[in-house]
Amino acid sequence: MTLSVHTNMSAMVALHNLNRTGDELAESQNRINTGLKVARAKDNSAVYAVAQNMRSDVGALNAVKTSLDRANSVADVALAAGEAISDLLVQMREKATAAMDPSIDTFARNAYDADFKALLDQLRVILTNAEFDGANLLNGTLTPGIEFLADADAARSITLKTQNLTISGPNVVLSNTASLGTATLAAGVVSNIKTSLDNVNQALANLGSDAKKLAAHSKFVAKLQDSLTGGIGNMVDADLALESARLQALQVKQQLGVQALSIANSQPQIILSLFQG
């Protein structure tokens, strides 16, 4: 080995190792601080790119979930209103059937007619208020239905079909001017109510089926989000228990590197002893 005051290879090697330990220590501290083993593209470009694409999918699924949540709310409001309309028709049939009795007097018939028309007005109120965020599935304005996002690419949609329950419409065949003024009129109303009840209950079944499909798809989207989020974590999250052990090892290694550099730097002192008289 050549002894020189200009070149100290031992010190150069010790410094190189100490710098490398410092870099590893900084990397470990960064992982502990961020909780990520891949926080930037330079940490692992391939994994970072894949993780970013997956994060994009998770973000898009948030929009899908928001759309489906709105769809579920629209369906819930429509179902509640439809069930209320069905209940009203049951009550209206009771009034109309009672009005068919030929033995009742004019006062009683007028009372039944007034009750019937009050229920008819209530039906109109329910139809008007069966709306969520501007969407009403029951008043016949949104034919044939509303489409909602079904996937992250917005390439597919899921449709919530309308069920027209307007008075004098395709399902509720009662006339807006229906009356129980005579037994004959009451008989006609009873027939129309029977038909309307059958139609309304079928419409509710159709709406319930759509709502069930929406709820199932919402659960799937939530599970898909969880799976993607878990996949991202598997790729980029740091194992903090491992990093804690690694940090302590690197700190010891750094201290030893400082010691080694100190020893290497003292080596040229040997040259002085060669020139002592």
Instruction: Indicate the structural class.
Output: mainly alpha
Strand order within the widest sheet?
Answer: 1-2
Radius of gyration in whole Å, from Cα? 39 Å
Instruction: Provide the CATH architecture of the domain at 45-236.
Output: Up-down Bundle
Question: Count the helices. How many?
Answer: 6
Sketch the major β-sheet: 2 strands, antiparallel
Q: Separation of termini?
A: 24 Å
At the fourth CATH level, what is the homologous superfamily of the domain at 45-236?
f41 fragment of flagellin, N-terminal domain
Question: What is the CATH topology descriptor of the domain at 45-236?
Answer: f41 fragment of flagellin, N-terminal domain
State the shape: rod-shaped
Order of helices and strands: HHHEEHHH
Quaternary form:
single chain
Task: Output mean pLDDT.
Answer: 89
Unreliable sequence segments? none
Summarize the amount of helix as a percent range: 55-70%
Number of strands: 2
Name of the CATH first level of the domain at 45-236: Mainly Alpha
Hey, roughly how much beta strand do the residues contain?
A: under 5%
Supply the key terms.
single chain; mainly alpha; 277 residues; 6 helices
Task: Describe the model.
The chain is mainly alpha-helical. The protein has a domain at 45-236: f41 fragment of flagellin, N-terminal domain. It contains 6 helices and 2 strands; from the N terminus they run αααββααα. The chain has helices at residues 9-34, 45-99, 106-129, 183-236, 240-266, 269-274, and strands at residues 145-149, 157-161. A two-stranded antiparallel sheet has the order 1-2. Helix 1 (9-34) runs antiparallel to helix 5 (240-266), helix 2 packs antiparallel against helix 3 and helix 2 (45-99) packs antiparallel against helix 4. The longest helix has 55 residues, at 45-99. The chain is rod-shaped.
